[in-house]
Each structure stands twice: as structure tokens, then as C-alpha cells.
Specification:
Elements lengths: L9 H13 L10 E5 L5 E6 L30 H7 L10 E6 L3 H10 L3 E6 L6 H13 L2 E4 L17
Parallel strand pairs: 3-4, 4-5
Antiparallel strand pairs: 1-2, 1-3
Length: 165
């Protein structure tokens, strides 16, 4: 018997971890996850968009419109920043980050400062916006490469049924 050939690529695996991490988000509109990987293909950090530790998900707003302080925007920590802050305590220089959504300018600052050298993203739905243009300008200037993930599979289904193991 020979090995199976329909296994997923490293990019598909790590983007899958990022997408699965995003499923932890309490945000009713946007669920973004991120996964940081070192040069040996070991996961060294993961995160999702959510409130900081000590801030209850029930005590803060999740809306997108209205007065600024009555929206989620001043309170939510993005997935990329959470992944950086949640890393296993190692230097992130030379690592790459997989993220469901192209990082905003604020997360790009943290990516650059942490030493991450590559961003792999799934969606760039805000391409052309001021935030996206600022992000790309900083990443480019700092020598951080970025690319859209190329997946050979459209979806992966997980089962918690023990018969499927």
C-alpha cells in the first residue's frame, strides 16, 4: 500500500487553522482568525478577533454603526494582533502569518514590529480602501511580502463523530 495523495498542502493546513480559530470569535458579523508559523512549519501563535482579556463579551457592543463608543471598533482586538500577543513566547522574526482577511494598517504595524516576514491571506475584500493601501505601503516598505493563499481544495469538513477517525 502506498501513501495517500489527496492530503492538504501546508498553506491549506495553516489557513485551515486560521479559519478554525476565527470560529471562536463572538462577533456576529465578522469572524477572522490568524495563525503564525515559524520556518520549521510549527505553529507558534493563533488568534481571532475578540475583546481583550478581562473584558466580558456580554458587556461591550458588537454593532458596526452608531456612535463610535457604541460600536465594536474601539474595543475589538483583531486576529493578527491577538495571534502575535498569544504567541508561545518566542521571537517571531522570520515567521509567516496566515490570516482570513488581509490585515488592517494597525495590525500591519504589529506584524512589521514583531519581525514576521510574510502575510498569507484568504480575502482582500477591502482592497483599494485607505486602510488597505496604508497597510500594503508599510508592508512593502518594511520588506514584508504578502500573497493570497492558493488552495487546491474549496472546503474542508471536520467531524466530531469518533467513527470518522
Amino acid at each position: 500500500m502506498s501513501k495517500r495523495t489527496d492530503y492538504i498542502s501546508w498553506d491549506e493546513y495553516f489557513m485551515g487553522v486560521a479559519l478554525l480559530s476565527g470560529r471562536r470569535s463572538k462577533d456576529p458579523a465578522t469572524r477572522v482568525g490568524a495563525c503564525i508559523v515559524n520556518q520549521q512549519n510549527k505553529i507558534v501563535g493563533a488568534g481571532y478577533n475578540g475583546l481583550p482579556l478581562g473584558c466580558s463579551d456580554d458587556d461591550f457592543p458588537w454593532g458596526k454603526t452608531g456612535d463610535f463608543l457604541d460600536t465594536k471598533y474601539p474595543y475589538v482586538c483583531h486576529a493578527e494582533l491577538n495571534a502575535i500577543l498569544n504567541n508561545i513566547g518566542m521571537d517571531l522574526h522570520g515567521c509567516r502569518i496566515y490570516t482570513a482577511l488581509f490585515p488592517c494598517n494597525e495590525c500591519s504595524k504589529a506584524i512589521i514590529q514583531s519581525g514576521i516576514k510574510e502575510v498569507i491571506y484568504l480575502s482582500d475584500k477591502y482592497d483599494g480602501s485607505d486602510v488597505s493601501m496604508a497597510s500594503k505601503r508599510m508592508l512593502h516598505t518594511a520588506g514584508v511580502t504578502y500573497r493570497k493563499v492558493v488552495a487546491q481544495v474549496e472546503r474542508i469538513e471536520l467531524s466530531f463523530d469518533e467513527k470518522d477517525v
